[in-house]
Amino acid sequence: MSRPAPRPVLRWVPLALALAWCAVVLVTGVGTEGWQRGYDLGVYRDGAEDLLAGRDLYHRATERGHYFVYPPVAAVLFVPLLLLPVGVDLLAWDAVLVVAVVAGGHRLLRAGGVPPALVPAALALVVVSDPFREALVLGQISPLVVLALVGGAALAGRSPRLGALLAGAAGAVKVTPALVLLLGASRPWRRFALGVVVVGAALTTAGALAAPASWRSYFLDLLWRSGRVGRPGTTSNNSLAGGLAHAGVPGHLAPEAGAVLAAVLVALVALVLLRPPVPGEPAEPGVPARVRWGLVVSLLTCLASPVAWSHHALAAPLAAVVLAAGWPPRERRERVAGAVVLVLWVLPVLQLAAALPGPAGALLAQSRPLSLLVLVGLLVLQRPVSHGSVTSEESALTMGST
Fold first, then answer.
1. CA 328 → CA 124, 184, 325, 387, distances in Å?
2. CA 315, 133, 366, 245: dihedral to nearest 10 degrees?
3. Residues 345, 369, 149, 278, CA torsion sign
4. Residue 291 in contact with residue 92, Cβ under 8 Å?
5. What are 132-185's pLDDT values in tens digits?
């Protein structure tokens, strides 16, 4: 007599435990520093207050020397935060993040090929990863930006207007996600890329109308001064510039060298996009391919930025899960690589790196930028999937979106 299959509801226990752990981290502060709780959300409030008061958005510094670093349109979007008392706003913001990551992450993982039975456990690993934990504690917008970028690319075929709206909004709010326009190098993506340009231009214009002086100073000056965000050599910097700084490149040279390497990497990815379809490969990318390319672009934004903190890289655990558990069956080395990278983004690697002196700490800090490069390489070189094998994944992603 065969044993009964486990009840589907039990599949969600790992995710429930992961969310409970996040609540413990928020309440007790375990594994975090006291200043971190709601810190970035407070910066967002400051930007919204300065916007309403007609002040320069980029003049006010926090007690730790940080500034509002987003385009003016972001300050417009943060104005509703001022309707909530301090403290309550963080709870409300984190509730939005949890709902967005659970709902959006569920659809993206299914569309990326993760079997339904494994999706709750996969989501649990994403929720306890460094990027999401850090975003919850700080009250960060980064998870929403990543989900909008990757989800926008995933919807590019079935719902191009909605996809362009999501990806264009991500680019307008945080600039670096505008790298999604790279996908326009491939003909099937060009309608989507045009929509992203229209949405991004409209939102950027709205920011210019709301704060014209701040808009000019941001795009003509401050955007190009990465030192306002952080030092390249900071242990928690996961970009190419950060990796070079960890390797001993002087801080004043690391951003320029990182930009050169990033340009080379983007050019190589563009060459893959430009290549003609191989026999048997669909001319129009299917849903798994669109999810894959959305993840690639999000990872590239982290590598190309002069400074990329952990909360910028939610695409890393998402991509690692897709590689480790996704369908179609992958090479064993791809699954192993995905699992190893996932461990690097779940464990507190950078906290350990900061505590270790000398070369050991620098080598451990290097693991994050290197892991992003590994993910990009594995995703870009993935084999194509035929249309006939992705029906269930496409319906999982687009259900309710039209």
1. 22, 26, 9, 12
2. 100
3. negative
4. no
5. 999 999 999 999 999 999 999 999 988 889 999 999 999 999 999 999 999 999
